[in-house]
Design brief:
The complex is a heterodimer. Chain A is of the alpha/beta class. Chain A has two domains: 191 residues, Periplasmic binding protein-like II (D-Maltodextrin-Binding Protein, domain 2); 225 residues, D-Maltodextrin-Binding Protein, domain 2 (3-Layer(aba) Sandwich), CATH 3.40.190.10. Chain A is built from 21 helices and ten strands. In chain A, the strands form two sheets. In chain A, strands 1, 2, 3, 6, 7, 8, 9 and 10 form an eight-stranded mixed sheet that branches. Chain A has a two-stranded antiparallel ribbon with strand order 4-5. In chain A, helix 20 runs antiparallel to helix 21. By secondary structure, chain B is mainly α. Chain B has two domains: 62 residues; 212 residues, MetI-like (MetI-like fold), CATH 1.10.3720.10. Helices cover 76% and strands 0% of the residues of chain B. Chain B has 13 helices and no strands. In chain B, helix 1 packs across helix 13 and helix 10 runs antiparallel to helix 13. Chain B starts with a helix and ends in a 5-residue tail after the last helix. The chains are: A alpha/beta, B mainly alpha.
């Protein structure tokens, strides 16, 4: 009887001390690793139970939005994209992290926030407060198939221009043999074709809006960019390019069917994985192409981050997980578990890139990824000044809808459903409507 | 001796040809219906790059790694789906059968209006009511709970139960009730002794439909549950990723999800067919 009493007391005791946090996440490979390492977190913090909710990106976004806006408090931690962090921060949906770091100097010292790349930190801040920490970050760059280049007797410059890219693609294009000069995103969506195309607009010298929120799509820069994109893909791209997004192009590239591919830096890891790629060791890397307008904004910036929704009832425990999963120790832990430094979450910390083991393992592309991310400044992405931040997106809540709509018009031009001029007019009208309805124009 | 059988043979072979032709057509149609399912099961045993390959791969060395990846989170989701589907179907019948009986056997002036009103609740797209529903669930602490999900699916299937059981019960000749009344049966005895047994084939068919609807429902499940009550439809979704390939894994998860329904349907088919064809009501 006494034993039972003691046992129940002990149970009661642990039940009281333990807290449970629920983490909402997307199912990207680095997040799968994070879930698998939960027992390691529990070794350090045995009193915090971790529950995972995995959802596709769009559903996750919807669910967290609904949860935070209604104050339901289901989630204590969430993976949030760099596009949403400043918007959600402005809405008061996220707990600012700066005061939490200030409250725990020992933890802050070990965490070493200054080690986190400055461009990444600035993308995740709003009004001088940090609202999220990066789990991994990416930019865009140029991939090319070295075998196909050798066969065509051409070379890729280290920092190509879009014009050079088009010329190179024309030399490699050989559709009768199932080889296409260039693969670019054509699938409509703000995070699909518009991710790439917005960087083209930037570097061709264009912008979405001027400082008075007047849309700037009916300008020579946009016309040049649309014409160039449609021309290049129609002449030297794979058939049915409007249904190709990141995954489809990755597959084409990994099967040796593309000469050139301009896309996310995370693609490098997949192309080097023998399980899924037939071109391991045959892929060359170069900077993202620049256009005739400006070198600014030619490569995008995206990061997946951890943030604490304001409605969380376990913010302290959530903060512990957040700092653990983005720490130097975590990165080393992934390297140890996976057996290679090439698999660690990239793009977040200087210390990762200074690590000789990482340099040796990630080799050819690591320095390119670092310089791409460091140069991807969300506050200076266009030739002319703009009233917003962001490179391949503009950080207003309406951009998801606007970007997807404009992406559909772009796909219409690519498939030949509408002319370039008609497309530009549709885009301009959509941008005008967004600025007006959103109350941005004074 | 020779002429008649020849004529007979010609007719016979024409019959055979027509039968064979019909059989082939039947197989073609069946294959068209089954192909997506077969393709899904095939993809579940492929590697990720085979599942995504173009042109499609038909012959391959089957692998089990997709199931290894899909299984760890399968158990709880399966349990949630079973509880939600069977719980909601049971509740919908407890509430819907008496309603259908009353509307069929003791209709008032407004019976038709009541039925139409019930059906009208199905007109509204689910997304139109999700925000108020979410807030109600939040305030009643039903978010991410199995009772919440059961309640949701019950309301979703209740109109179906009432409508289908109403039509089965109106088909029962009124003379049977009158005979029972003459013998002094109460309303309860009419319900349990006549309406329910005679409408049994309808009950099993409707129950199967309710189970399948609840099993396949994804929109409410996605929005109203997260981990403690997330059913299989939400479980499949978690395999989607924006980085890398996932078709084979997702096919494995989908195969595991339809498996219980297939088994259930296979076990129940004899009873179902018998129930449907041996009913007292013709």
């Amino acid at each position: 009887m006494k034993r039972i009493l003691l046992l129940s007391l002990a149970l009661f005791g642990t039940a009281q001390a333990a807290s449970t946090i629920t983490i909402a996440t997307v199912n990207n490979p680095d997040m799968v690793t994070m879930q698998k390492l939960t027992p390691e977190f529990n070794k350090k913090y045995p009193d915090i139970n971790v529950k995972w909710v995995t959802l596709p990106e769009n559903e996750l976004r919807q669910k967290i939005t609904l949860d935070v806006a209604s104050g339901a408090g289901t989630f204590d931690l969430a993976t949030v994209g760099s596009y949403e962090v400043p918007i959600w921060a402005k809405n008061g949906w996220l707990d600012p992290l700066t005061p939490m770091f200030a409250k725990d100097p020992a933890l802050a010292k070990a965490y070493d926030l200054n080690d986190v790349l400055p461009t990444v930190r600035s993308a995740l801040s709003n009004g001088g407060q940090l609202y999220a920490v990066p789990f991994y970050a990416e930019s865009s760059m140029t991939y090319y198939n070295k075998d196909l280049f050798k066969a065509a007797n051409v070379t890729m410059p280290a920092a190509p221009t879009w014009q050079q890219i088009q010329t190179l693609a024309s030399k490699i294009h050989n559709p009768s043999k199932g080889v296409y000069g260039i693969c670019l995103r054509g699938l409509p969506g703000w995070g699909e074709n518009m991710g790439l195309f917005s960087t083209m607009v930037n570097t061709f010298g264009g912008r979405w809006y001027d400082m008075k929120w007047q849309p700037q799509i009916n300008t020579p820069a946009w016309k040049q960019a649309v014409t160039f994109y449609v021309d290049t893909l129609k002449k030297y791209g794979p058939p049915g390019a409007t249904s190709n997004g990141f995954t489809e192009n990755l597959t084409l590239m990994s099967q040796g069917k593309c000469g050139i591919w301009v896309d996310a830096t995370v693609g490098a890891g997949f192309l080097s994985d023998p399980a899924n790629s037939k071109v391991v060791g045959k892929v060359g890397f170069a900077k993202a192409p620049v256009g005739p307008g400006t070198p600014r904004g030619s490569n995008w910036f995206w990061s997946w981050n951890l943030a604490i929704p304001k409605s969380s009832k376990q913010a302290d425990s959530a903060f512990k997980f957040l700092t653990w999963a983005t720490s130097k120790d975590y990165i080393a832990l992934v390297a140890k578990t996976k057996g290679t430094w090439a698999s660690v979450p990239p793009g977040t910390r200087n210390s990762t890139y200074n690590n000789p083991q990482y340099k040796a393992a990630a080799g050819a592309f690591s320095s390119l990824v670092l310089s791409s991310i460091k140069s991807a400044d969300v506050t200076k992405a266009t030739k002319d000044p703009v009233p917003y931040t962001g490179i391949q997106y503009i950080s207003i809540p309406q951009f998801q809808a606007l970007g997807t709509q404009v992406g559909q018009y772009l796909a219409g031009a690519l498939s030949g459903q509408s002319t370039i001029d008609a497309t530009l007019k549709q885009m301009q009208d959509a941008a005008q409507k967004t600025a007006k309805d959103g109350g941005y124009q004074k | 001796m020779t002429a008649a059988p020849t004529h007979h043979n010609a007719v016979g072979s024409r019959h055979r040809v027509r039968n064979a032709f019909l059989t082939v057509i039947t197989y073609v149609i069946a294959l068209m219906f089954l192909f997506p399912l077969v393709w899904m099961v095939m993809a579940a045993f492929k590697t990720e790059s085979q599942a995504f390959a173009s042109p499609p791969v038909f012959f391959f060395q089957p692998v089990l790694e997709n199931f290894q990846k899909a299984l760890p989170t399968y158990g709880p989701a399966l349990l949630h789906s079973l509880i939600a589907a069977f719980g909601s179907t049971l509740l919908a019948f407890i509430l819907g059968l008496p309603a259908a009986f009353a509307l069929a056997v003791y209709p008032t002036r407004r019976a038709q209006g009541v039925l139409s009103w019930m059906l009208s609740t199905k007109f509204m797209p689910a997304v139109g009511v999700i925000v108020p529903l979410f807030l109600i669930f939040k305030n009643l602490h039903l978010l991410d709970t199995l009772p919440g999900l059961i309640l949701m699916y019950t309301t979703m299937n209740l109109p179906l139960v009432v409508w289908m059981m109403h039509s089965y019960m109106t088909e029962i000749p009124y003379a049977i009730y009158e005979a029972a009344k003459v013998d002094g049966a109460s309303v309860g005895q009419e319900f349990f002794g006549i309406a329910l047994p005679l409408a049994m084939p309808g009950v099993s068919a409707t129950a199967l439909l309710c189970l399948i609807f609840a099993w396949n429902e994804v929109f409410f499940a996605l929005n109203l549950t997260s981990s403690n009550a997330a059913p299989l439809s939400v479980y499949i979704g978690q395999f989607k990723t924006s980085e890398g390939l996932f078709w084979a894994q997702m096919s494995a998860a989908a195969t595991l999800t339809v498996l219980p329904v297939l088994i259930f349907g296979w076990v129940a088919q004899r009873q179902l067919v018998r129930g449907l064809s041996f009913g007292a009501v013709k």
